């Protein structure tokens, strides 16, 4: 540990505490929500393109998987594997009311519909 002489002592307010009083919580929240939403959507759009092999092509599947995992890390959700499975099934059976994974089931329709 150092002594008091090892530090530079100033007698002004701590800058973070001063800025905290000036910044509105709702301004900060709205800015973070909008900025974070744009970044999150951009990352998920990138994952969609990676699933279609647009990053490295079909000849480098391991590089594709690694990139997809790295890109989804900031979202906090490891969605690559499950999204790839269901999204490719959606493309294979697109428009089929039974096999298309993007068409809602009867239970989903009833649960999410308003009277």
Automatic annotation (TrEMBL):
Record's GO cellular component terms: membrane
GO molecular function: sphingolipid delta-4 desaturase activity
Membrane-spanning residues: 28-51, 63-83
Biological process annotations from GO: ceramide biosynthetic process
The entry's keywords: Membrane, Transmembrane, Transmembrane helix
Domain Fatty acid desaturase: residue ranges: 25-110
Organism, scientific name: Oppiella nova
Key word Membrane present: yes
Sphingolipid delta4-desaturase N-terminal domain segment(s): 4-20
Name the UniProt record assigns to this protein: Fatty acid desaturase domain-containing protein
Superkingdom of source: Eukaryota
């Amino acid at each position: 540990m150092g002594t008091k002489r090892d530090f530079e002592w100033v007698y002004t307010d701590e800058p973070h505490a001063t800025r905290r009083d000036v910044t509105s919580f709702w301004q900060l929240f709205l800015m973070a929500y909008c900025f974070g939403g744009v970044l999150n959507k951009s990352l998920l759009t990138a994952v969609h393109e990676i699933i279609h092999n647009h990053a490295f092509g079909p000849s480098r599947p391991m590089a594709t998987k690694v990139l997809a995992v790295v890109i989804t890390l900031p979202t906090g959700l490891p969605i690559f594997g499950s999204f790839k499975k269901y999204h490719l099934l959606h493309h294979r059976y697109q428009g089929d009311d039974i096999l298309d994974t993007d068409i809602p089931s009867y239970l989903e329709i009833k649960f999410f519909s308003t009277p």
